Queue: 4 jobs
Job 1
Amino acid sequence: MPSQAFAQSAVPKLVPDVSQRDINIQSRFTGAELLLFGAIIYPRGVVPEGQIDVAVVLRGPTRPLIVREKRQVAGIWVNAESIDFRSAPTYYAIASSRPLDKIIDARTAAIYELGLKRLQLSPTGEIDAKELRRFRTGLVDLNQRDGLYLEAPNSVNVTDQVLYRARLAIPSSVPEGRYVAETLLIRDGRVIVADDGVTVTISKTGFERLITILSQQYSLLYGTLAVVISLLLGWMAGLAFARL
């Protein structure tokens, strides 16, 4: 949605990229840092006057999710109320050149789901608005503590309104799947242009991948092997203690 400042000229073009297209999760994986960078190409090479802001978003795959609330009853924590969400991003991180509320209007931010407050999390059934806000806030807070949801204002560096770069943290608990890194060019409270997104694939490799495949596709075999290995380890431990 071009702003009036660009109404009489062609829209700028974004040339984005990332430091890694594939991130492999192994046994010693402790997290990673993804660099998102690129260039802004202006019509006829003329950089317009005024400030240009940039926001970069990295979204993980969406999945149905059940959020349960725990309550303490007689000194014991038990599951109480719960809510089902049709889909929720397994990972969401946004970095911007300035705080979002200073560079974009609320309506546009809601359309593009810019910011943790504007993530579209729809419940499967009817629920009171107050209850929905409570569970939604709980989900966002939990994922923020786990490093799976991140909002980083003032962390996109823009050089001469042409080059930009930002770094986003990938925690060790990040799920597998196809991630999309998107760049948005913002001016006068509106998104001038958004790129088509760069795909980043996060997957397990080696022994971790084998375990995942067995557990998901061959659950009976996986369960049998787990029992056999447990019995074998117990037997070996018994022999060791018997020799002491």
Job 2
Amino acid sequence: MIYLDSAATTLQKPRGVAEAAARAIRTMASPGRGGHGAAMLAADTAYNCREAAARLFGVKNPESIIFTLNATHALNIAIKTLARPGSKVVISSFEHNSVLRPLYSMGARIFVAPSKLFDPEDTLRAFEMRLGGAELVVVNHTSNVFGYILPIHEIAAMCRSSGIPFIIDASQSAGILDINYTELGADFVAMPGHKSLYGPQGTGILIAKYGSSLIEGGTGSNSKLPEMPDFLPDRLEAGTHNMPGIAGLAEGIKFVSSVGTSKILAHGRELIAAAADGLRQIGGVRLYEADNPEHQAGVMSFNIRNVPSEQIASELWARNIAVRAGMHCSPLAHRTAGTLEQGTVRISVSAFNTKKDIYGMLRAVGEISRKV
């Protein structure tokens, strides 16, 4: 199989990820739930993972690394800490439903800063026009549909100067782009573990200095109190930890740190450039790519004429090529790009893809284009 759907989940993981998860199942209990060896090993593993994540993301205190089920879980904690019914919240026109739906369900007043695809200057102008009176800003660092890298540092600076709380959705950038939490000054950064951090599904991270608990329950600390502890990470981590997932995530972070995000980013851009070069040669293909490669990460979308994107993805899977098609849970991004009705076929790469994968995909798209 040629796997080109890493923006959803990286299927190819470093070998140590599965080994660590299996070892945790055999040897670890739960951190904070006992003083015996199995519980202490779990506690040490969890803390080591926090330390590794803190180093990777420029976090001074490892206890600011909060383990979550996924980025959606992390974003819900962040949004429901800062937003209130009626709050003016400004978001980009490339946000995922993991941002849009929590805000909508809370009754926040959502202001979209509409901007052109792959145009950072236009994006900054849109935010400048809408920040007045804002009580919260939430921005997707990299579009999961098009790979557009939004000007996150400039938006963060705007929020700092205006005293507006800021949440970053790093679902497509964590493990690929350089993210320094301390320099950005964001209130929260949310990310999944199972994408470009190469961890198992069911893992995620929220970087936080404070927060309101989304759920309440056991923490293994301050058990006499009826309320949640007032310190991190315990305040935001109710219930039993996913130790096989956390152990695997630690190995994924170790892999990213050893290779380096700059090298991973360069590899992804090289593969996407090869894909773009080939797709431009195929009749009927409409490609969504940045004129400046610095504005796009390892994700690219395309369509073939007016053929439904799901049909193209099905034809590719018939040739043993895995991609994603449709809305990608991001209707705002499709409305922005004019692809709301058709959706797009999305290819997304990881550190384990090669040009051979890209060339195989290109041959298949050529066959499908001629067929349809």
Job 3
Amino acid sequence: MSGAPTFLEGRLRKHRFGRMPAACGLAAAILLALSAPAAAAPRVIELTQLPCQFLESEDGKDRGYTSRSIKDCEAINAKTGAQRVAEAKPLALKPGKYVFRVTNRNVPYELGFWLRGASTVSRITLPSVSGGGLTPGRAKDYEIELKPGEYLYSCPLNTTPDYRLVVK
């Protein structure tokens, strides 16, 4: 090895003395940025909406409900929602960044997703995410950074029960 500078070292030396083109300075900045540690990617939580329920939230048990409108789910969940939520295990997560990927499977109308604090006070202090536009057969991502606390999630347009999420 002759100890001669590498191409990049030579270009940087020239830049220090004002002879390096601006584009090379930009290239060096990009190389430095790419070598910096990357931020942790958000964890993806998959949830599937069936008529009147979230599949994973009820231990993967498809209840076989049919719904043509919100009224159908309101009637079904008035009869069975409290019992199903009592039997469901809360989703337990650690604080951090998440993407809730929600899929509309077999619900013939547009759905949404709403994740929020479980109490009136925690709705003010904890982050929330919501949105609609979840058409039949499609998935949509809802990004959030969860803090420790208790949350509820549901679909107001599919009238699902309020499922629990605990972050600690």
Job 4
Amino acid sequence: MPDKIKFGTDGWRGVIAEDYTFDNVRRAAQGFASYLLEKGNAGKWVVVGYDKRFHSENFAEAVAEVLAGNGLNVHLTDRATPTPVIAFEVVNKKACGAVNVTASHNPPSDNGFKVRDENGGAIDPEGLTRIEALIPDTIQDVKRKNIKAAVTDKSVVYFDADEAYFTHVQKFVDIQQIKDAGFTVLVDPMWGNGAGWFTRLLSGGKTKIIEIHNERNPSYPEMKRPEPIRPNIDMGLKATVDNKADVLIITDGDADRCGIGDENGEFINQLRVYALLAYYLLEIRGERGDIVKTLSTTTMLNKLGKLYNVPVHETGVGFKYVAPKMIETNALIGGEESGGYAFRNNVPERDGILGGLYFLDFMVRTGKKPTELLKMLFEKVGEHFYDRVDTPFSGDRRMREQKILNANPKTIGGLKVTELITVDGFQFKLDDGGWLLIRFSGTEPIMRVYCETMHEDKVQAILDDGLKIAGIN
């Protein structure tokens, strides 16, 4: 009997041809179809899209066949499409949900299966558990309509998802002002779905857009994986300096995450970018609204919340927690440590394209370069330092978790431990307002150790102590 398909932090991911096979993709699609039908969506439309990984377009057609075989109708994208565009099209086309064939930032060996609700956002943990339960154990229990027959009877319709989003995203910023600013913008879409988008949006004025890694190449040369952190972005940072660019905008493989490099070719880590975007919306645009953050992201947001008198909500890691809380509170911004940020009046989904446009608008409205924007932020909340270590682990996960729970450290990195939070992993609060977090990835067999502190000289000591607590060192 085939293995059970398990959904992690953001859907199901697996190694292509090992566990991520056509049969298993069809089984997962059947589980989602059954879930949608349970909720009374028979005959309604579902959006299906995909990224530029190996065979993604063919896996997407396999998903469409199963959905159509279950009496659902499918809007299937006619090309690789950014995740935020797929999410927007769910709302735009009044669909009841979406499937996105993508493994986002995973290594090139992987592919994935993301599901979205009628709001275009991540499905909550209870919904994911139900989808898992509805996935059949064998391919024989999967209903399916041949793609050619489905296209003929129009239960599957190919469509161009770009144009509606292209119009929609321009409502958020003054595109012409960015075009007229005279910036040199280096864009690294990491061989993924963000290729061409900033060029298309911002060309035709004084601003110059230079793209690298903008072709399809599922092996992701010059990087380990299409994740917008170092060392994957080192070539982009170098190209920023070589081209004397004012800023580097990076999108990950499916363009739902956004990374930033400054004018000196230095990476601005994702916690700082999140705080910068929140500060921009609150201070520069004068907007007000709740902030939603995962516990693995920056306490600078808590400080901004106090300064601007807006509530800050902390959730577990993953947009399956962030999206529902954003909808509940009509949040101004929501985000996580991985570089995914979502914004009010858009869909409750990470949007690397809008995030990049907002950052450019921040530069236009203030007349400042990225290093100067950081200085503005730090004058408000103080300078914060962050780092993360990802490490494979062996042995029983539950035993390792119990060991971490029993560790009971009084100090970490020389700072007093003030509280232990176990909402998602193990977060040790420190007396400088910083924290150490140890948690197991929901999508890969690795353990992550993260920290944030006001003391640059204590970052490594905090991480080292974290690894010891986790039984790695």
